[in-house]
Amino acid sequence: MNEAQKKKISKFLSLILRHQPETINLILDENGWANIEELRLKSAKNNIHFTLEELDEVVETNDKKRFIFNEDKTKIRANQGHSIDIDLALKPQQPPEYLYHGTAEANISSILEKGIEKRSRQHVHLSQDKETAAKVGMRHGKPKILTIRTGKMFENGIVFYLSENNVWLTDFVDKKYISR
Fold this sequence. Notes:
By secondary structure, the chain is an alpha+beta fold. It is built from six helices and eleven strands. The strands form four sheets. It has a three-stranded antiparallel beta sheet with strand order 1-3-2. The longest helix has 17 residues, at about 5-20. It starts with a helix and ends with a strand.
């Protein structure tokens, strides 16, 4: 499978598993899992075709590890980034002292004024390193990286989760914990 095909399938999976399963009449369970055979069948009816091997390749080679299989590879879900209401069944965890948030330069003044909001997503996403944060920021324009004092947030009772693909998640980052 070439890179263009992988990208097409990955974008489609992101849409279906994170935002709009109803697009293909797919039902996700309360934890966001989709039955792979049902996903393949309903995708094919919408002219998106992929084999189990191709799906496996998309999951394994995705640079952000957006998707995960269950143990017996009968189900798939997105690791985070949902705008639909699902329970990823993540356990609260203590974050490192500092994490990073990548954004576009155009968003900086709003973030420094209001904080980082989850908006239509279930959580605010934070990265463990500046390189990953920069990649995230690049998707939206000229990237800027903000340093988040997550150790202090945790001390102050803010809850954090770590997704399966090592993205830190929280509900909101108040501006007082953000530095440039």
